[in-house]
Write the structure tokens for this entry.
Amino acid sequence: MIRKLAALAALLSPLCSAHAEQSTWSFAYTGFDVATISWHGETTKWDADANIKGTFSGTDSNGDGKLVFSELSLLQVGGFDYVGCTWGTCLSDYTFSYTPNGQLDFKVSRYSNDPEGYVFWSTVYESGTSAEFMQYALGSPSGARYAWTPQTTLSIAAAVPEPSSYAMVLAGLLLVGVAARVRRAR
């Protein structure tokens, strides 16, 4: 009996390990009040097509049903990876929270300047509030601010699993099928 249970556990292990892999999601916020900022001042208008896109990957390692920043292997917003930050100076007080089929909340930022100190760049994303893309050249500001509104929408989708995940699931199912067939033949 113990040998049969051990064999069943060995057959089912590919299925379990495929489930334990990290997951990846893509998201897009669409529709913002967009403020254009220059040394002349600021002009704001609604833009239904303005969007902020990103991707994140992680594993709920503590099993609480919520993904937080420390459980991420990737957080890419606007084409920049905040988990593996190597550009300029990235702030360490990032926040991130995602509950599958629930709310996505995050705050990340980065900044840099030229070696002479004449130009300064900053990017700050705070979901639900605003995203700011600023540049200061010799003290003159330019950039944009995307402000969340009640019309701002979020679309989020789990990415298609890696082919290796499918291979592991199929191998596990094949082994379970073979074991059932051998058992019936006896």
